[in-house]
Amino acid sequence: IPICCVGYGDSCVYLDLQVSEAELVFNRHRREGHTFPVSVYNKILQSWVKKGSQLRAVMLFESMVRDGVDCNAQTHAIMLVLHTRRKNWDAAKKIVARMESEGYPLKHILQMAQLSKTEAAEVLKAMDHFRVSAEKLPRQVGPYPRVVRSLYDDWSRESDTERPGEVTSGEEKSEERLGVGVASVKVFSPDELKDRLRRQLQMEQQGYLSAPSIAAVHKTDSPEEEALKESTHRLMRQWRRDLTAALKRDNEDFKTVVKCLPALGSKFFGPKQYPFLLLLPAEVWADIVVEEVVVHILGQQQGLPLTFLCRLICDSAWHKYVVLQKKQRGVVEKTSQLYQQFMSHLATPSPPHLPHRQLWQDMDDALASAGSLSVDIPKWPFTVASYVGAGLLSRLIDTAKLSLSDDCNGEAAFFHSYEAGENGWQAGHVKGHQKLFKLFKKYYIKHESTHFRLAAELTPMLIPPRPWSQVNEGGYFVNPVSIMRSVADVYQHHSLLQQAPNLNAVFDSLNVLGTCSWRINTRILDLVTEIFNRGGNDDLGVPVRDPVFPEGLENQEPSRRRDAQMKKLSNECYSLWMDMLYRLSLANYFRDDLFWMPHNMDFRGRAYPVPPHLSHLTSDVGRAMLQFGTGYPLGDKGLDWIKIHLVNLHGHKKKGSLKERVEYADEMMEHIMDSADRPMEVS
């Protein structure tokens, strides 16, 4: 399937722009023997209905029937919306009859199709006309595998048992049935929970979280540094303004000659690029390029591959496009309303004894008249990223000029070059002017890194995640996350997941993991931060900024192999140092707060937290900085197991029995407590 054609058609449909052109491209690929999923037909059909073109919509629908395309619930719902708007009840009656024969009864269509709020309102009008009441679609609860069923039953009976040394009230037992995160949520008042939901939705719609760096320089800038700061900010503002103006001119030129689209072409963008560029305002595109790409380029003096930058641009733009679509279709509004009801049900003294997935689906079905939470937006493949990203980078190179002093005024700030890659291939790179690196080295890297912009889908959540109910519906509220991790542009995995008959056991397992609340161990965080700001310590797992090279290297003969190894070691050290800086800065941001981590899995079925920087599945340093948000008593043997774990880390009693390890820990308890009280002092 020509994936790029799917994305192009989706863009044209969303913009109400040249739908006939999108249909021409679509039909040309059909004549060449390509086959398309029914979702592509539905996109074009939905666009004709949105434009009110009954003739073109009916012609396309009849073509689908004639060609043997398997029309699904979405197809019939779109045609029903068309005839309802025009009050063509005879045609609507035929569509309803066809729906019944195909297994899509009208009473269930609101739950079976992905409709916007306005489309759902039209379907309700049709139900009123035909005197049909909307009914809840029966959801498949099982079957569970035998082992999973046993675990689920144990979890359900957990309220009837007590942990050793613990007396649990009836209300606490009720909380435990629904996951350990429920008890943590109850510390918030309804107003606080509503405010945290608002902040979470705002962060996801914004697309990033701004976290202060723990390595920030806290001092008053000198006059020279103030001048450097102003020069840096002035350059960034000028590049953003110039790039925005250039993109606006390109967009206006495209709109004026849209009728002769096949003949349209320019120095920077071709006809197949413009629909993607029009999806977002020029200011947003300029912000993506300047704020994200420019910083990446100036962070690497040797430049960055063109393909990497193109993918970076389009991934960020696609996420913003998804958020924009969800806002316009009412998904964000319904999600907020649904989640507040969901948490209210869990906070009641006797919450319903249902898995979170089933409770969420039941509440979603009750609000089916507000539209569907699912939005079918095709991921932009690398083909789209390459020609859209390359056009934007070309525009940046053309518009971004240096204005640091009179001797460099008007010079290009960035340029494109080719570097020899593997197997002798030439790879395109984008590099910055040498004078820019001097400026950034003096000020930008030192001062502007006081805040990090972390993608919202890579940060923990302020509230428990949305329960997984479909393979692409769960975790975050607005940001799209797949239930299975896969390499970019590998679409077979997602296709197979969609065809899986029943993944309820997987959904429920990930939902239980996601309800676990976390907090930061501030003592460990402060200790690791102190070691990090002192320069790091490899023996303690805290990376250093620069590697230590043997003395006297400057007096030795030049060696390309040695230089390459030293460069590789320096890059690895810097990468590890930056990873720890991100981890510590994010942990410091959440140091006094509860947070939650949505989970997904890899192709082997192993579950991982989606946020990579704060995770319990990481190094010892990363795990040491985390604590459970809700603590429980250790029980009779809990302290012994902590002693055993401590001795295992020490490595002295590797061949000793468990009893011997506990006895050894008791013998060394005075030294253990002294190390805990004074970790940086030698006794």
Structure in words:
With 683 residues, the protein is mostly helical. It has four domains: 3-129, Serine Threonine Protein Phosphatase 5, Tetratricopeptide repeat; 210-304 and 386-454, no CATH class; 476-550 and 560-632, no CATH class; 636-683, no CATH class. It has helices spanning 3-15, 19-31, 38-51, 54-66, 73-85, 89-102, 109-112, 117-129, 146-156, 170-177, 180-185, 190-206, 223-256, 274-277, 282-298, 306-328, 331-346, 356-366, 382-399, 434-447, 492-499, 504-514, 522-533, 560-589, 620-624, 638-650, 658-667, 669-677; strands at 208-212, 304-305, 414-420, 426-432, 451-455, 466-470, 473-475, 517-520, 595-596, 599-601, 607-609, 626-628. A three-stranded antiparallel sheet has the order 2-4-3. A three-stranded antiparallel sheet has the order 9-8-12. Helix 12 packs antiparallel against helix 17 and helix 23 packs antiparallel against helix 24. The model is unreliable at 159-180 and 259-266 (pLDDT under 50).
